[in-house]
Amino acid sequence: MSEARIELPPDPYQRPDLDCDRVVMEMPGLQPLRQVRILSWRKRRRIAVLAVMGLTIATLLAAIHSSNRGAFLAPGPLTNHHAQILAGQGGDQCSVCHGAGSSQLWTWTADTFSGGQFCPTSQSELCLKCHQKSIAPAFAPSAHTTSSQRLAAITEKQITRFQLAGFHTESKDDRKLACGACHLEHHGAEFNLAQIADAQCQACHLRQFDSFESNHPEFSILPGRRARAIQFDHATHLQKYFPEKKKETQCSACHIGDPSQNVMHLASFEQVCSECHGPSVKAVADPAIVLLELPILDLAILKKNGIDVGEWPQAAQGDFDGQIQPWAWKFLLEQPEISAILVRRGFDFQFGDIDPTDLTALKDAGALARALKHLLGKLANGVQAGNDTKSGLNATGESLHNFLPPPQFFQDVQTRWFAKENRSPTNLSYLWDPPSPFLSWQDQSELLAKNPLAGIHAANVTDSQSVATRPEQYSPSENKASREGSSWDEIQPLPYDGSPRVADEKNAGKNDRPGANPGPLRVTQPEHQSPSNSTQQASGEWLAQNPLSKRNENRTDSIENLEPQRKNNAPPIAPIVNQSTEAPAIEPVFSPPHATEIIFAGWYRDDRACRIEYRSIAHADPVIVQMKSVIDRGDLAGNQSLTGLLRLSLTNERVTGNCAQCHLALSPNGQQLAGWKSELRQGKAREFTRFDHAPHLLQLECVHCHRWSEPEAQSSSRLASWSNSKESNPEFSGRSNFSPLTRSACSNCHRQNQAPNSCTTCHRYHVD
Amino acid sequence: MRRRFWSAGILIAATSIFSWLMIYLKRNFYNSNWISGYALFGAILFLAAFHWRKKITVLPWLGRAAAWMQFHIYLGIGTFVMFGWHVNWTLPNGVFERCLGSAYAIVALSGLFGLYLTRSIPHRLAAVKRQFIFEQIPVLRMELIKRAHRLVFGSLESNETLARVYVNRVAAFLESKRSWAYAWAPSGGGCRRIIAELISLDRYLSPAQRETSRDLMGLVREKDDLDFHWALQGQLKAWQFLHLAMTYSLLTLMVVHLILVHAFSGGWR
Q1: What is the ipTM of this complex?
Q2: What is the pTM of this model?
Q3: In sequence order, what E strands does A554-692 have?
Q4: In chain B, positions 4-43, which contact chain A (CB-CB < 8 Å)?
Q5: Looking at the DSSP assignment, which residues form a beta bridge with residue A605?
C-alpha cells in the first residue's frame, strides 16, 4: 500500500480562509474525505496469478492423491465392453490396461523424463493379455496382424490374379502399430472401438478409390471364376433330378448358413447327396491304385551276365517286361544307386526295352529288382520314420504310414512271392490261402480272420474243377497284354451261379503264370460274360458287364438285377465282413452288394501279377485322401516328375474317375489336387473378407445376387426340352451355373446414405 | 493494412499446412495427437513468453514488443487450429481434460476479448477531452471533490440554494464509486441528470450564482470523464488479470497433462 504522489492541476477555487473540512463536518449529508490508498495493479496481478496457480496445483494434488483419482484423470468413459469387464476391479481399473495405473505422480514424472523406464509394460501388451486368443502376440503390432512376408505374398497374389487391392510393402512392413492407433478408448460407452476411416485403409493399399459404389474393384472372382472343389450342375439338379425325386428345390436345402463364419456351408454328402449318389459311389470297382508291382525278369539272362537278384517269383519270370510303379519310385527314390539309375533311365523306364546285350541295363534291372525286394522287407518290418534312409522312408514314412497296410500284410507278401527266402518255422502264413484283401485301418489279425476270399479259395480247393490251376497252364510266352489283362476287373469275384466253376481255358492258358502260389480266383463266365480272346477285350467286356463299374449308367440297376441270382446261389462258406458297415455281420460272399464292396475294398495282393494295389471302399476313402495329402504336402523332395506321376495315379480316370465326377480338382484336367472339401472359403481364403448371408436373406432371395449365367438364362426352352429327357444337361460344361457376382449387386443398396459402404463393412483388419 | 494482409496470409498457410500434416498422420496410423499436442504446448509456451519479454527490457535482440505482440496475436489464433486437431474437433470427455480444455478456452477467449478491447478502447478514450492515468484517477477524483467543496462552500453565504442542492444531490455523485455495470458499460446518464438538475435551478439563481453553478457543472463533467477513463482502463486491466492468471494455470495443467500422457499412453516401446 502506498500513497499516490500525483501532481494536481491548480485549483481556481482555492480560498485560504475557508476550512472545507470543517464545513463538511458541519454539513449534514456529507462524508469526510478519506485518504486515497492505491495498490499497484502489477502487485495485484501477481497475487492473482499466484493464487490461481496455487489453487490449481492444490486441486490437482488433492485429486491425484484421492481414492477416486481414476475418475478424475481418465480422459473419458470407457466403452461398454471394457467398462463391464473392469467393473469388478474397484478403484484399480486403470492398472488393468495401463502400466502406470498403479503408480504415483512422481513415478509418472520420472517415467516421462526417463523414456518410459519406470513403466516398462506397454499398453498394447496389456491389451494382448486378454486378446491373445484372437490375435497372435507375435504379429499383433504388424499390419493386419500378420507377417510382412505373408502380406507381400498376398499382395503379389492379389495384384496378379484378382486385380484387387494390394499393399505397400516397401516401407511400412516393419512399422508397428499400437492397438490404440485404431482403437480409441475413453470416448464414451457407445463409441465404436473398431471404427476406422476408409482413408486409413487406403493409406496402405495400392488401389485407391473414392467409395464403394463409385469405383471399388469388381468382384472378379466370385463365384464363377473361383476355383471350385465340387462340380455341381445346379440347372440339372434343380430342373430335372430334384423334381423327379420330389426333392426340395430351395437353396437352403443344401446351403446351410453358419452364423459363426458368415458363410453358407454345403451340406455334407451324407446329408444331401448320398440318397441318390451313395450307391454308385460305394459300388466303385475300378482299376486300383498300384502301390508296387514286380517287373518280369529274365533270370537266365541275368544269371548269365553274373547278376543275381536272389529268389524271384515264378509269376514274374519271363521276358523282361513291366515297369516300376510311381508309388514304388517314391519309396525307392532316395536310395543313391536308384537315383543314379533314375538319372539314366527315367521314370518311364520299361523293362521290356532292356537289350539283353546291354550289361548296364541288365545291372540296372537287377538293382531295381533287389531294391524292390529290399523295400518289401522294410515294409514287412514296419516303416519307422527317420530310421531308414536307404529305402527313402525317412522323409515321408510318417505320412505314408497313414495309408500303408500293416507290416503283416507285407510279411505275407514276402512269404508268398519269395517263399524260399522268407520261409521260417515261425512264419507259416504262406500256407494260407491267397489272396487276402486288407483294410488298411483294421487290425491284421482281425483282417486275416475275416479274409473273405479265404473262403472262396477254400471252396475252390474243394472244387478243383472250378479253379484254374496255374503252374501247369502257365505259358512262358505270356506277353505284356496278358499281364494287363490280369487286372482286378478280371479277377474280381463274379456272381456265383452255383454251377461248377470252370476256368475259361483260353484265358487260363494265356494269363496264368507258373508259380506255386495259386492266383486270383478265375471262374467260368456265363456265356454273355465270357472274356474274348484278347485279354484287353475281355477286360472291356468285363467292364461293360461289371455291375460294380461306375461307368455303367445302370450299375445300380444291374446290381439289383443280380440280387435274386445271388440269393439263389449262396456260397458254401460265408466269410465275416466288416462289422462297421451297414451290411449284416455274416454275409454270403456273393450275395448282397454290401458284402461284395467290402470284399473288394482296401489293399489287395495280386500274386499272379505280383502286384500290391488299393481300391477305394466308400465315399471319402481315407486312404486315397491320405495319398492325395502326401502329394499335396509336397513330401516328394521337389521331384516334380514324380509328383506328376503320383498325381496322375490319382487323377487317372480309370482309378478315381468316379471321384472326379464331382471333385473337380481330381479331374485329369485339374491343375493340381486342390482339395476334397467344398468349403474353399474356410480359413485363409476368406479371412480378409466377411459376408453375412443371414441379414441379406431376410429381405432378398438368393437369386437377387446369384444370377443364372447366360447359357442357362438364355436357353430356358432348351432346358425345358432337355429336362424331359433322360440325359444330362448338354449345356453344362463343368463351370458354375451362375454369373460372377458384380459390385452393382451390392452397391445398389450399399451406397452413401442408404446402407453401410465403408471398407470395414465387408473387410476385416485382424486376420489370423 | 498490408502488414495485416500478409500476417493473415501466413497464418492461413501455416494452419493449412498443419491441418494437412494432421490428416496425413492420421491416415497413415501415426499418432497425430503427439505432434499436435507438442506443437500446442510449444505454441502456448511461446505465447506466454510474451509476458516475460515485456518484463525484460534490456535485451534488444529479443525484438520489439510490438512485433512480439503481433506474433502473439496470430500465433494465438493459430492455436485454435492446433487445439481443434489435438482434441479431434470434439469436446473432451474426462474431468481433468475438461478442466484443461476450459483453461485453454478461457485463456484463448480472454485473449480474443483483450484483442478487441485493445483495438476499440483507445479510440473511445481519445474522444475524451483530457487523458488520465489509471492509477491517478482516485487521487484526481478526491481532488475534484475538494475543489467542488471549495467552490460551493466558498459562496455559501450568498448562495444557499446551490449549496443545498450540492449537498443533497451533486456531492453524492461526485463522491460515489461507479457500479460494476458502469465499469463494464460506462454511460453519461448520471452526469446528464445532475447537470439537468443544476440547469433547472438557474431560475432561482442570480447571474453570479449561475456562474458558480456553471463551474460546478464543469466539475461534474470532469468527474464523469474520470469515471469513464476508470471504467475503460479498468477493462484493459481486468482482462489481463484473467488472461495472465489463467495462462499460468493452463501451463500448470498442461505440464500435468504431458506427464499423464507419457505415463499412460503405452505404445510399442
Answers
A1: 0.85
A2: 0.58
A3: 602-606, 611-615
A4: 26-31
A5: A612
